[in-house]
Structure formats: structure tokens, C-alpha cells
Amino acid sequence: MYNLARELLFKLSPETSHELALDLIGAGGRLGLNGLMVRNPSSLPVQVMGLDFPNPVGLAAGLDKNGEAINGLSQLGFGFIEIGTVTPRAQPGNPKPRIFRLPEADALINRMGFNNQGVDALLARVDAAQFNGVLGINIGKNFDTPVERAVDDYLLCLEKVYSRASYVTVNVSSPNTPGLRSLQFGDSLRALLDSLRLRRENLQALYGKRVPLAIKIAPDMSDEEIALVAQALVETGMDAVIATNTTLGRDGVAGLAHADEAGGLSGAPVREKSTHTVKVLAEALGGRLPIIAAGGILEGRHAAQKIEAGASLVQIYTGFIYRGPALIREAVDAIAGSTIGRR
Question: What is the pLDDT of residues 33-48, one digit of tens each?
Fold first, then answer.
């Protein structure tokens, strides 16, 4: 059934089909239909960041930036859902077209630029959804906020989403907001993380709960840079790392239509690079911090490989677009059948 739907959706422009698919998922959720059309995955509970996940396969940020289809997505079998990236103020993002399909490579290139309706609009939808599962909220900075003032945007978003989020993801790795990736390194990273830690302490006292903080990183770092990031995350009291965002590289897509478009490449071509990042992180962290793996999961075995590499959870996005809800169950089953899943 999904293959037919995908064939029809792929006749439309990528962004139009994305919006239509999200509308359909949302409508199915409101009508209670999504759960009837999808075989839910087997139970595979896992505890990560002090949170209880019904299974380790989640939706990555980017698909539902504004929290428009939370209930509908929750009926598809995900163990957790991450919405956003959201910024303090609404912004249109980059000029269209800004999403490009590379179907021969099971890949996408996007340069969306954090297009979203702002944090207040997202929170209104979170409240209306009344979702009881694990909900991550991914936060970023507005495009016109200078990088040297980026911390202000992150702190504002953290304050606003804190009471509603199961965990908060700090996105410092999108390649589509100028200067953003510079926040992943050195003094800039430590200053941001220290500010987030201190503000989280204040919010924990205010709300009486500790909301985990995860940092999402890029796959385009050297092993030494990854190790330095891992050290900074541990020393500043972060709770998890998400590896990885999209890549600026074009390995595996050279010569394909749209391969030279600017933006981040996701899907199958980023799989090995993302899994390598997970392995390097796992070695550097030594179990002190959990890893959430994302990037190139198109089959169940790819999810299991991420877990074997050292991840505790996985997220899908591009694979969900190409494979549909069946990928969720397939990934859960593959993880359950892997060496680590059977422990």
C-alpha cells in the first residue's frame, strides 16, 4: 500500500509531497486510522537517558518541524518522536526549491534552512496533541541571529520547551544555517554547553524534573574532532549525543541528477560515515553517554548495525520516506534479533 502511495507522491515536487504526506498522516491520526493500517512492531523496551522507550526506533527531527502530526506519527509504531528543528521566531527558510530526490541512491538533498512557525506555535500543537509517549524537541537558532549570540536563541527555546519535552536536542550541525556548524568545536561548543547546563539546573529546580539534553552532531568531522566533542559533552553534563545530521559530502551520488545541489545529503550514501562516527564516539565515550544513531537506515539490518556500533537508540527519516512505516517494524525486529538485542 505504501509503495503505491509513494509512487503517487513522488510525481509531485519533494516539498509538496512532504507537506501532503504529513497532512495525510495527521488526518489519519485524528480519525484513528493509522494504527489500523500498520502492524505495530514487537515490544522491545529500553531505558535511555532515564526515559522508558517502548522500542529503540524513533523518528528523526525534520519530518514534522511544527508538531503538526504528532498523534498520527505516534500511531505508526515509533518508539519515540522528535519534532523540530524549531527556532524562537518563525522563519521561512531558504528559497524553493530546497529538497531534491536522488532515488537511484535512496537519498535526499535538502537546504531547508530551519523553516518553521516558531516555538510558540509548536508548543500549542504539542499541548493539543496530548501525546503520552517519548517526545523530543529539537531546537536551533534563527538564521539572522549572529553566531556569537546563538546561545541566546538556544536558551530561549530551552526555557519554552522544557516543561513539554521528554528530552531536548540541541542542533548545532545543520549545514543550512550559516555558521551553525562552528558551534560544534572548541570554546564555542563548551560555552554553549555550559550555558545550557546552567539554565537546565535552574529549570530543573523550577519544574521539579530533569529533562535530558542531547547534542546533534555532523558526520563530517575527523576522528580527533569527534573525540574532542565527546570529551566536551561528558565534562559539561550532557545526557546523549545524536550521530549524525546530514553530510556536505557527495560520496556515492556523483553524476546523479541534483547531486551538485547545495545542502545536506541524507539517506543511504551517509550510512557508512554516520556509523563510523558512532563507532568513534562509542570508543571515546566508553559508556559514559548514550548515542542515538541516525543516517542511512533503509533496512532493518542497518538499524541493527548502528546498535552493534555502539548506539542505544536509532532514528529514521529518509528511510521512512523511501520505505514507509514497514521500516519501523523491520528495524525493531532486526535489533531484537541482533547480538545486542538478544542480551
Answer: 998 888 889 999 999 9
Cα–Cα distance for residue pair 324/316, rounded to 1 Å: 10
pLDDT digits (tens, 9 = 90+) for 137-170: 999 999 999 999 999 999 999 999 999 999 999 9
Instruction: Quickly count: other Cβ atoms within 10 Å of residue 1's Cβ.
Output: 10
Q: Is 238 annotated as a binding residue?
A: no
Whether the CB-CB separation of 322 and 6 falls below 8 Å is answered with yes
49 marked as part of a ligand binding site: no
| Catalytic residue chosen out of the listed positions 174, 266, 274, 312 | 174
For residue 137, give the 3-state DSSP assignment.
strand
In single-letter form, the type of residue at position 253 comes to V
Pick the CATH number of 1-341 from 3.40.30.10, 3.20.20.70, 3.40.50.2300, 3.30.465.10: 3.20.20.70
171 is in an annotated binding site: yes
Active site residue 43: no
- Concatenating the DSSP letter of every residue in 93-137 gives -SPSP-EEEEGGGTEEEE---S-B--HHHHHHHHHHHT--S-EEE
d(CA 317, CA 331) in angstroms, rounded, equals 13
**One-letter identity of residue 5:** A
Listed by start position, the domains of the chain span 1-341
**230 annotated as a binding-site residue:** no
